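Collaborator request, handled under Task 6.
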Amino acid sequence: MGSTLFFIYILFSTPIVGVLILAAIPLSFELRYRIADIWINYLMFMLKLCCGLSCEVEGLENVPKDRAAVILSKHQSAWETIALRQFISPQTAVLKESLLRIPFGGWGLATLKPIAIDRSAQKEALKMLLEQGTARLKEGLFVLVFPEGTRVAPGDSKKFNAGGAMLAQKSGFPVIPLAHNAGEFWPRNSFLKYPGVIKVKIGPTIEVTGKTAKEINAAAEEWIGNAMTEISAESA
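Structure tokens returned to the collaborator:
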């Protein structure tokens, strides 16, 4: 019942917030971003109210206060595509180009400076990530990248793609590694959401000066892997 109510809320609220963001196009990016933030805050409130699902964050002190960074995050669920903006902000994300074609919600999202890529054209997608990602970082936006490329079930892992690490290496901005277990409560491709507390761990920044993209990627992958093991042990 709770998952159904939450779905209904998403179904009705998304077009409304999309229209509001589109109406704010003549105004500032900051205002459009704030409108999206309010929607996300209410969405997380409804998720807790309807499904009993909340989160607990460790490592907020590791988020830089004076500069942006590339967030390399574990990807298990739709939850992290939305909720991470609540505690690492302002933020944009690398996402599928097709999402921007969704009426109202996707159109509104397109005004929030996403890095929308076509995964079938890998060379062009990487070029876009590096060019637009660097521009967003210089504007002061954190850039969220899921190096596994797709949602991976809890307990599984995929080899990290190098795009996010290449962005950090070429732009000079640091990496924030991030681990979580959202897939245990909001599984991929599942309508049901289960009650509980999602554990999020934010690691110390990985400085990129003097490092290759391969070294940056390996450091992030190792930290996230170890953090996922800790989360599993704490949740057992």
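The cover message to the collaborator said: "Residues 77 and 189 are 8 Å apart (CA to CA). The chain has a mean pLDDT of 95. Please let us know whether this matches your experimental observations."
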